[in-house]
Amino acid sequence: MRAKRSFLNLFTGIGSQIITISLGIFIPRLLLVNFGSEVNGLVVSISQIIVYFSLLEAGVGAASLQALYKPAADGDKNSINEILAATSSYYKKTGIFYFFAVILLSAIYPMVIHSNINKATVMLVILFTGLGGAFNYYFQGKYKILLMSEGKNYIITSISTIINILSNLAKIVLLLLGFNMIAVQASFFILTLVQILIFIMYINRNYNWINLSATPNFKAISHKNSALIHQISSLVFSNTDVLILTLFSNLRIVSVYVLYNMVFTMVETIASTVNGSITFLLGQSYQNNKSKFMRLFNTYEVYYMAFVFSLFTITYILILPFMKLYTSGIDDINYIDKWLPVLFISIKLLINARSACNNIINIAGHFKQTQIRSISETIINIVLSIVFVNLLGIYGVLLGTLVAVIYRTIDIIIYTNKYILGRNPWVTVRRWLTNVGCFIVLINISNGININPTSYKTFIIFAVILTVILLPIYFIFISIFERESFRYTKSFFYKRLIKNNVQSLKH
């Protein structure tokens, strides 16, 4: 059952991302064509600031998820209700602050930003962008955590995908018809409310045993403050670059950063979907069967890291051809820069390939033990980015981020292996070196190939060809060096797919 849920999470997640990317990629282009780089930079900077409001959820979400793994695995409804009651209490209190934070931002932001855009427009765009998140947080945050602990990410993904499709289609139609940004963001807000209603209906129908009036088990989520520090550090870290560029440069530079980051974030989201599809399985195995957990984790780390490297190898090869195609006809600022992909790929590879080890810190509940390390990464990022941005502009913020990521990645690898897994960090380092070596070879080979798509159709063909070639290369290459993980994977798929299918045919 748990393996089946992992596959459902994986396939629905990847399917969702393909659909969302296919639709969502048109919107920034339409914004640029219809309103220019300034409006595109404004919309993204607002979205980035509103992301900080999710700090109100930070800590309790991670702590609740970690606490729910065991009762979810055991089917202990009473314990689940007690943890959810404590979680719900926190969400209700902080949900009010979320709402007023959006109102306050809509009043202050138009007064401090340097822009030619009408202040009333900016205010309404903020309200429609932020209030949807506030209602989402208040009404369904706790239920999402429960579904994640049970490995039912595919339910969350399915509902979100339907709404994303409708939301993106509405935005595209409104932009093509010439409506302003207020109408575009209003459509997003309305569909967010629809999503909340669908989600609540699903919970009421399938989880009628949930009792939020149960005695709250606040002790179960007592790690929330330490987890909060991790979440604050993570969110500040993830959104520092856009905020610093907004303050120290201009919205056109923000737009350049955002377009590159958009592409890498889409790829990053696919990687995160694969990562999230198996996290609950690791969490439940860690609580109930440590030997099984170690075999599962080793295989997961080996092939997830190879998957991440293959995705970002493809992205690095195609990023500049895509940007030339995507920004053709837009001349208010130059979007083609050979150094930006180098900096972005370095940062994204480090962040995503370390996710396997980082997940174990969360699953084991080592929030307090590692909070200083997380804070240090954020401080390094902010300080160096502010120093470098005045010297090197957009390169400066990326360099500041890169230094911080290098420090934290090394730290995560050492801490997870030494203090949680009880093994030599060289096991993980060896896997990194294997993938990095493969990456360097493939990039050097690709430099001798002329990739210059003249349409989105030819671009997609190039992307498919590269995926079909590079993904197996990474998996075969890593399997040669990680034979034990390869044997475990072969055995796993044989038992779950081939053997079960043969038995079902006999019956």
Automatic annotation (TrEMBL):
Give the GO cellular component terms, alphabetically: plasma membrane
Q: Where in the cell is it found?
A: Cell membrane
Query: Any idea which UniProt keywords this protein has?
Result: Cell membrane, Isomerase, Membrane, Transmembrane, Transmembrane helix
> Which membrane topology term applies here?
Multi-pass membrane protein
TM annotation in the entry:
7-27, 39-60, 96-114, 120-139, 151-176, 182-203, 302-319, 378-398, 433-453, 459-481
The yes or no answer to whether the keyword Cell inner membrane is present is: no
For this entry, the protein name equals: Sugar isomerase
